[in-house]
Amino acid sequence: MEALCFIASPTPLFRSTPQHLTFPPQHSKKSLDPLAYVQIHTDSGFLTILQDDENVGGLEVMDKSGAFVAVHPCAGTLLVNLGDVAKAWSNGRFCNVKHRVQCKEATIRVSIASFVLGPKEAAVEAPPQLLDSQHPRLYAPFTYDDYRKLYISPKFKAGEALQHVCTHYS
To answer: Which domain of life is it from (predicted)?
Structure first.
């Protein structure tokens, strides 16, 4: 894949929001419910930077075969995850990943995340440099706010909202 290089705008293009995620402890082995934490999803924004709990695992990513693979915490590191906006903006060249958090032990799990969401007002669309006869536009332009409404809609399951903005340009 060729390198993608774009000059950053002097004005903030994307919104960013930090979050401290605390998962309550499950009090007994019997109450350890993998569904009690975070269900399968893709991140709706452009980028997530995560400092995961170094003592308690649980984060899992889906591989190409559809199987979940544990992401083992590593002290002093950050995990970077691309979301739906990155996939649409890159015209499918960047991949978003389905992931979940499973409850593995009876203890509190703490993660700190910073989410780079989407443009404040501009449409999310692939720049002309990423479009040509071999790479036609895959996603219709959309605003992040409109996409977020689709994303949280009960009619879409994990990762399906982005498929709704697919286009069939030829």
So the answer is: Eukaryota
Task: With H, G, I as helix, E, B as strand and everything else as coil, classify residue 157.
Answer: coil
CA–CA separation, 69 and 66 (whole Å) = 9
In the chain, domain spans = 14-118
113, two tokens: 């995340």
Closest CA to 161 of 87, 55, 91: 87
Eight-state DSSP code of residue 161: H
pLDDT tens digit string along 61-93?
A: 999 999 999 998 888 888 999 999 999 999 999
- Look at residues 55, 58, 50, 62 and name the one whose alpha carbon lies nearest to residue 18: 50
Please write the tens of the pLDDT for every residue from 7-17. Answer: 334 344 555 55
3-class secondary-structure state, position 82: strand
